[in-house]
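ingest -> fold -> write
write: protein_1
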Amino acid sequence: MEIYLLNSTPFEGVKNLILNELIFYDFKVNLDDFQALIITSKHALKALKRSKNPLNLNLRVYAVGENTAKEALNLGFKEVKFPKQFYANELFKEFKEELKECKCLYLRAKEIASTLDKDLLNFGVNLTQKIVYENVYKKSQLCLNHPCIIIFTSPSSVRNFLKNYTIKSQDKLVALGESTAKMLKNYENLFICPKQNLKECVEMAKNLIKSV
């Protein structure tokens, strides 16, 4: 049984199915005008790096997940926080009081699955949002061998997959995160990875093969 991963990260025994393309925007921002930087994806940090805007490494960074937090530390940011559970709504719950005391910058995608922006604004956070990248659909010519295991990494990966392919009744679906799982709630054989981590998703998929 083949494993297909809707992500470009390579793993042994897994086929990468690329159905999206990232478009990074040119943007100007003065990080010295803010006290906190909110990041929900590594792509936002890539966009910041590509923008050539001077970095304020003393800025407090609030990241959704551990991997995004590590990316911020690799860029040189000194104070980086992330919630115990790697979801945008958990970031809001855990840090909303801190963020309310700050002038915050949220670097984000054109389309987002969470309501983090609305939650922060409704709570009274002084929030500036900048759209710094876009995730666009890209058709694939890869033919899938069914039944198979498909690892979905985001809500947009589900939407893009369904534009190109059909989920068969015997396929097993692995979802990275609750937002992604909600997009697949009408399908059987859905498994939600307990950790928001690609490696964990792949391990889950490989264990599903062993159980067949």
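write: protein_2
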Amino acid sequence: MHVEMVSVGKDSRARITVTNTADEPLAIEALIGRAEIAEDGATSFVGSDENFLVIPPQAIIPPGATQNFRVQWLGEPIIAASESYLLYFSQIPIKPPRSDRLVQLVFNIGVLINVAPPVGEPRLNVVSKGIVRDASGTRRPTVTVENSSNVHSLFPQSSILLEAAGWSQSIASGQLTETIGIGLVQPGHRRRFTLPVAVPDNVREFDARIELKPRR
């Protein structure tokens, strides 16, 4: 799940709803911190950020009920470039009756929050291409893209055309969403993605053209 915000105006606020589908009360607390996404998709998280207000910071949700959490940006109204955060809803263990005989499992729910500056447009450029084999041995194309703008990009909001001698393949935004998910590319960063099509055995290299259609 992800939430799109802007550093100023009505979109500097958001609401996130958590539903308790269990048959016991659910106690959770909110923890938020900066997120950095590496080229291979690995995420680093630094907690305790003060740029947000989350109300309520903790809640006990009855079985079958929902709880709305209001998220408010408190940082600078004019930021130079998009910033990304992870909001974790962490379960707080509640001591059950006869706890000496039970093992209690707890969980974390993560929500990606992107905060964009009020001015700017995302851009994605293909900087390298390759071919890899997946677990089944199928040859898959890879593209590494770079975001040269001050606004974060979501790779699945693109369509891609792959071309080689005697072969071409177009990939729609919907296909990328199904297989890649959010596909965040932060400002000034690169990301490498494996695409959901097969490359024929006789294709050794290909050209890739990307068309980004951001939805904000």
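write: annotation protein_2
Residues 124-212 form a domain with the Immunoglobulin-like fold (CATH 2.60.40).
The chain has a mean pLDDT of 91.
pipeline exit 0
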